[in-house]
Structures
1.
Amino acid sequence: MTRKVSRSLASTCLLSTLSLGALTPLLHAAPAHACGGFFCNNVQPVNQAAERIIFSQAEDGTVTAVIQIQYSGEADSFAWVLPVTGTPEVRVSSNLAFQRLQASTNPQYTLTTRIEGSCRDVDSRSSPSTGVFLSSDALSRPDSGSGVSVLSEGSVGPYDFIVINVDPMTPRASDSAVAWLQANDFQIDESAADRLEPYLATGMNLMAFRLTKGNSTGSIRPVEITFGRGQASIPIRPTAVAAVADMGVMVWVLGAHRAVPINYASLELNEALINWLNPTLNYNSVVTEAANQAGGQGFVTELAGTSASLSQVIYPSFEREAWTELTRGGAGAWTGREGELFNSALRRFAQFDGLREALRATIALPSPEVTYEQILSCPNCYYDFAVTDIPGFEPATFLAALEENVIEPMERTSAFFDARPYVTRLYTTMSAEEMTRDPAFDFNADLPELSNVHTAERVIECSPSINQFEAPWRVSLASGETLRGRGNTWPLSTTGTVPANRTIRRYETTGEGEVIVDNAATIGAAILENNARIPGPPPSAATGGGGDCSASHRGSATWIAGLFGALAIAFTRRRR
């Protein structure tokens, strides 16, 4: 979902849905998507979506964060600032990697439907199942009189970046930092100081990004930041000032075992509340309500398991082979075939990030009015790439730029999933008033895998006197409960009183966690109350209640009585 920051905010806003991914104590950052790590001119509203971060912890404890940045506005107003410890290593990453990763790990809710009896308009006794996919001490240059020292600076992909330190003896270090960044052309508002002060007060540094001159917002890409040894954590508190309600936060944690939030609750959703007929309609609402019922500080674990297969999802073998084929024989193989090289690269890697940077490193713009984006959208409108030999186009330069900006980011992100055996995907939504604690993640080897694939069966209870679309049905859930409904309407809603969480737990680095809320009894009672309102199919008028339809009806009545008894037994067992 995309949201906009209200113009009632300050003219410049600290942006970040979830400030970014950070390591405690080594990394504190603030990704993008909302207000909290971004500083953006408010002339144009900022579009916000779910925060997406990949954390990878190596065997030596070193943590790398890949953070997706989403921004809408003027290019010269873009600035991204995050608190960090030390002088992190920075690389550019890939939006395509995030797109593929999310699509592959999204929750899937598959509802298999079969028909019991015969409806007036349908004689078939079964129908195909349906599946729904729901939809990252170098140089020190003191700045005279400000207390600010430059620890490192450089350029990566479309960004210029700098890491600064403020002398701890400086009163209100954040004021000095903001003033220094403003004086050095980082578009940051004075209001940022209050949100940054708690981090600088602990001795952390600041890393600031801006777009390199000449780049447009279309060139914004995720960044990969490698810190020292530490714990994955998201500095969320700076986000609160400008955060919109219920911002999504999506995190993948790679390591030796399943990851858990150690200072936030772990939420197990009530699957009876999810609309299995079309989960995309209310899945996010269920997560939001579940988080709200945990005080706004809880994560749903959507997937936990082996990570190796995701390497092929991010950068599959056929694309690796395409790059190998393109570079076979080296740059010399393309001498006199420059146009063919360009067209081949564009054809094979058109969806990848970084083609703009590769083109920029290879050729100059034909005029100041033309952009590299325009050239990529219509290459032959500006250069005759149809010819084989293009004057000034160096194959060696182009291939090197392709490797650095297009191929390596995909290779590195893919390699994280090869190098670490386990991946955990966690998701939540948060509002400003809930952002009082920075969520941190650790590993627990005692916990089982969790699949992102969920299945249930629906049985439509047909009768010749009714149409199939209005017939009652029952859905058997993995929890062992059976929910009754009618037609195309899901019977339970997040607007009612049914809990969105089946359980709320607190996990540590060992053990099965502590259940702090168990809503099984309340959910079971709500399901029984709902089921009592939805009777089985009516008897057949033609048979006077006999025949197949009557048998089907009697079977339904018997089934309902049996259901009540079974649920009462299960209910008693849970309570014990």
2.
Amino acid sequence: MTEARPPGPGGVIPRLASLGEPGRAVELGDGCVIACDPGTLPVGELLRGWLSAATGWNVGVSASPDDAAPSHIRLRLDERAGAGEGYELSARDDVVTITAASPAGVFYGVQTLRLLLPPEFLRRAPAGGVAPPAGVPGLLIRDEPRLAWRGAHLDVARHFMPKQWILRLIDLLALHKLNVLHLHLTDDQGWRMEIERYPRLTEVGAWRRESPLGHSRDRRFDGVPHGGYYTKNDLREIVEYAARQFVTVVPEIDMPGHMQAAIAAYPHLGNTAEPVEVRSAWGISPQVLNLDDETVQFCRDVLDEVIDVFPGQHIHLGGDECPTQEWEHSAGAQRRMAALGLTDERFLQGWFTEQVVAHVSARGRTAVLWDEALESGAPEGTVIMSWRSDVAGWYAASAGHPVVMTPEYWTYFDWAQDRGAAEPVAIHVATSLRRVHAFDPVPPSLTPAARAGIVGAQCQLWTEYVSGPARAEYQYFPRLCAFAEVAWSPPGGEFGDFEERLAGHLARLDVLGVNYRPLAGPTPGQMRGWPAAEAGNVS
């Protein structure tokens, strides 16, 4: 058995809440056993799979938590270990013990254990034969998340992303202790979820004629059709795979705006009933849903199928960027406005939102809306995602809404990472790694009511300028590492300390093959991947 220096804060991302009691290392090697409480067996099997694949070791799993010899890892449930997703990890007396009040807490302790081991232990197969024994530093960790909702958003409507890569993304989120994947499934530029009752949503709505080339302001197009969609079973697979790693998938069906793809499939949903194409340009379409009873029923039908596929508590209904010009000139919308006694078309969106939120609530779920919903009256109990500013989130929380903080200035990863000409085209400049790390979703200056209402934070990746998985990884990483620390770790961490730990963490991303942006800027190989129209073309 070898002596090892504790990894200290330099060993793990996100930063640990508490680390102490250095001592002798615990040696793990071929033949080690993971002894589990019955409720932790699925987590034990995950750990066995990861260790066995990376090392070539014969790792056993025992259903007896007290099977101390030859156990080297114990996974225990104990309600005294704290609430929720917190855990305690100790390495002493030749055993690594992870104790938590919930299986999720045990899982996050296991993820920390993986980060205490060499980066090579994240491989999918041994690199050079069966690995020699490895030491886990002797230590005691007590750790718990700051926020309950620790999310990452992915827009698959603007650019379709393959299912296999979404499964890989889930692995990366779970490794960084994030627990929500928000899938933006529909927009003007594409409808990505199979809806059996309305097959034209994917037959027509999943495909657009072309996409912008370079920045949208250049008004050039590539002439290449783009599309794709997920079957219900594809999405069920994603949901189940995520659940095994304690990640909840939240689907978003954006309405009543951002619906041009649906209107292209079913023109009677629009305000003119004139045929339109799935939108090829970026930006906000003036095409929005009409307010007829039949259209509201269409939305209920769609949401029923969404709810049947996604078992999580939250269903995102969008509600952002809904122009009212068509309603201003629609006889049907004006009749609806008169019948409701409204004097401003903006409040028609509030009426529509009430209808769909009520339906989601009747199905036992909770609706999530972007912060524009506050302007026309967000129904009580809806979760608000505050994207336009942090102030909107503070207001919503003070008004009694659960709030997930998503302000674009800190959390929009479609923004460029630097102002340099080497960066690929992006919608805005620039959200640096330092800026992300500086984000405080619950600043101490807030009132007690506002602080209590903020339940989480989330980073966003809109994909107008992100055409595939490699580019998506470049936009996410390493900023997602900083965001994970914002959402999980206690407030007050220093950026210099994070940078020091990140230097070692990048070796793990290398082993995992993540196409992250190096701290010094993109590599020549990455820059060769930018289309010629994109080079140095940052807004």
